[in-house]
Amino acid sequence: MSTGGLDRAALVWGAVFTLLGAAFLLQELGVWQVRAGVFLPALLIVAGVVLALTGLREESS
After folding, report:
1. Rounded to 5 degrees, what angle do the CA atoms 1, 7, 53 make?
2. CA–CA separation, 59 vs 3, rounded Å?
3. What is the 3-state secondary structure (H, E, C) of the chain?
4. In the predicted model, is pLDDT for residue 2 greater than 60?
5. Which of 3, 4, 6, 23 is deepest in the core (most CB within 10 A)?
6. What pLDDT shows up at residue 28?
7. Other Cβ atoms closer than 10 A to 55
8. Strand intervals (E) in 1-61
9. pLDDT-based confidence at 60, cuts 50/70/90?
10. What is the distance between the alpha carbons of residues 56 and 33, in angstroms, rounded to a whole number?
11. 5 vs 12, higher pLDDT
C-alpha cells in the first residue's frame, strides 16, 4: 500500500504502536489504568480497517 513514496500501512501501524506504547507507559507511571480488554479489540478493528482499505485500494488500481 504505497502511494508516491508514502507507505500508508507502515504509517498507520507506526501510529498504532506509538499510541499503544504511550498508553502502556502511562499505565506503568500510574497516570491511568488500562486493561488489555480495551486495546485488543481496538487493535483488531484497526487491523481490519487497514486490510480492507489495502484491498480496496489495490482493487481499484
Report:
1. 40
2. 14
3. CEECCEEHHHHHHHHHHHHHHHHHHHHHCCCCCCCHHHHHHHHHHHHHHHHHHHHHHHHHC
4. no
5. 23
6. 86
7. 11
8. 2-3, 6-7
9. low
10. 37
11. 12
The three cell numbers locating residue 29: 507511571
Hey, what's the cell of 49?
A: 480497517
Q: What is the pLDDT of residues 9-22, one digit of tens each?
A: 777 777 878 887 88
What would the pLDDT profile of 22-52 be if each residue is shown by its tens digit? 888 888 888 877 677 777 787 788 878 877 7
Radius of gyration of the chain (CA): 15
Is residue 26 within 8 Å of residue 39, measured between CB atoms?
A: no
Contact 9, 1 (CB under 8 A): yes
Q: Which amino acid appears at position 59 of this protein?
A: E
